[in-house]
Write a structure and sequence with these properties.
single chain, 419 residues, PH-domain like, seven-stranded antiparallel sheet, 9 helices, 15 strands, repeat, coiled coil, PH-like_dom_sf, Synaptosomal-associated protein 47, syntaxin binding
Length: 419
């Protein structure tokens, strides 16, 4: 992810300690840093990593009553005249600061980036691919449960059709037919048992992903922390106390706009009344966007600032396709036998020779990559088998619906004759 992406910026004033005066400018938040640029001179007065922050507080002074202070190592930075208001800036900065500290990159993000090896890079790519495939498997599993519920419903419909067919047969029978009262009594006794069985078959859906977010409702200037939970059947927005703020079923979502890799908006349109719209900002949003794209492929829209994010994810280095699989397995083949060059052939130019030196990884990393590839292969086979099963189930559902439609038409004609 590009560390220079602008997540948010706010007009404000910064107290410059060297000249003992307030300087007007803009406070800028990136995924890993905070910066302040003066309006008049364009000079960058503040630039430090989020991991170097030890405290963010709302404070006041004798001169400026509404200020925000950031303690960075042993330096205290004062910001005031924050727009739209101090609470908005505080909530967003605190969210990204905490998530940065909780992330695996943490305080050593810069050092880790310098020391990363090809093995660690490839491990990260394959681990991300494994996570996306696991999320896909969860969605398919839920869809499979939905198909099973549909099949159970169709089986019950067929049972009800059989009952209706017997009732119609009795009504069509002559008045002297001797088994009518017994048939009615049997039907009344068996009917409630079927209803009870169906009512107990409801299954609870699973959570695909849950991330902390900063919530903005419509165009309100106030924001509040909360959580975004993605189910296979929709989205749920809740506050920090786990109280549901709003739930979108999949059919209710009209569009999802990706403003940046860290900010999206979800909207449901209405006729004659205002739309229901929520804007969600999160340091973990890059993990949720691929899942949302998979579930709402026809409703999601990437705006200009997010197009680079789409391109990066769909590049050969990130995509879960044959290119990664072949590259990973080829690289592992070279690692298992370090004495032999990676893909070495006569005629290899100097650039390829340099790449060969860079791509040698340790035996431990090779074993870890093998395990990940093994899991990926297993997940791929399970996903393929589930897709085949769902394809067969869909064919069965189509056949059952066609048969039920014919039976209903047939019984309607019989009822018309009776009336």
């Amino acid at each position: 992810m590009n560390e220079d992406i602008r997540i948010h910026s706010w007009p404000c004033s910064y107290y410059l300690d060297t000249s003992k005066q307030w300087v007007a400018g803009r406070l800028l938040l990136t995924p890993v840093a905070i910066r302040f640029t003066a309006d008049k001179t364009g000079e960058l007065l503040v630039n430090f990593h989020l991991s170097s922050i030890s405290e963010i507080k709302k404070e006041s002074s004798n001169l400026i009553f509404s200020s925000l202070t950031i303690l960075e190592k042993n330096t205290k930075h004062w910001f005031s005249s924050l727009q739209p208001n101090r609470n908005v800036v505080f909530n967003i900065l605190q969210h990204f600061w905490r998530e940065q500290l909780l992330s695996s990159q943490g305080a050593g993000a810069e050092a880790a980036a310098l020391q990363s090896t090809k093995g660690k890079e490839l491990t990260g790519l394959l681990t991300g691919s494994q996570k996306r495939l696991e999320d896909t498997a969860k969605v398919l599993h839920y869809q499979g449960e939905q198909f099973d519920n549909i099949m159970r419903g169709l089986n019950k419909i067929e049972g009800d059709m059989d009952v209706a067919d017997r009732l119609l047969t009795e009504l069509e029978s002559p008045s002297w037919w001797p088994f009518s009262s017994k048939l009615w009594k049997t039907l009344l006794e068996t009917k409630p048992k079927e209803t009870a069985t169906v009512s107990d078959s409801k299954n609870q859906e699973g959570i695909i992903i849950r991330i902390p977010v900063i919530i903005t409702h419509r165009t309100d200037s106030n924001v509040k922390p909360g959580k975004l939970t993605v189910f296979a059947s929709g989205l749920e927005i809740s506050d920090c106390n786990s109280q549901v703020v709003h739930r979108f079923e999949s059919k209710d979502v009209d569009d999802i706009r990706v403003h940046t890799p860290y900010e999206i908006s979800v909207r449901q349109r209405f006729i004659g009344k205002p739309d229901t719209s929520y804007r969600l900002l999160s340091a973990k949003m890059p993990e949720a966007i691929p899942i949302l794209e998979m579930q709402f492929s026809k409703k999601i829209q990437f705006l200009e600032d997010a197009l680079g994010f789409v391109g990066a994810r769909k590049s050969p280095q990130v995509d879960l396709g044959t290119s990664i699989w072949q590259a990973a397995t080829g690289l592992l083949g070279g690692v298992v036998q370090p004495s032999s060059p990676v893909g070495g052939r006569e005629g290899m130019d100097n650039d390829q020779g340099q790449l060969q030196k860079q791509e040698k990884i340790s035996q431990e990393e090779a074993e870890e990559l093998k395990q990940i590839l093994k899991k990926l292969k297993g997940l791929a086979l399970e996903t393929e088998a589930e897709l085949e099963r769902q394809d067969e189930a869909l064919d069965s559902i189509t056949t059952s619906v066609d048969r039920a439609t014919l039976n209903i038409d047939k019984q309607n004609r019989r009822i018309k004759k009776l009336t």
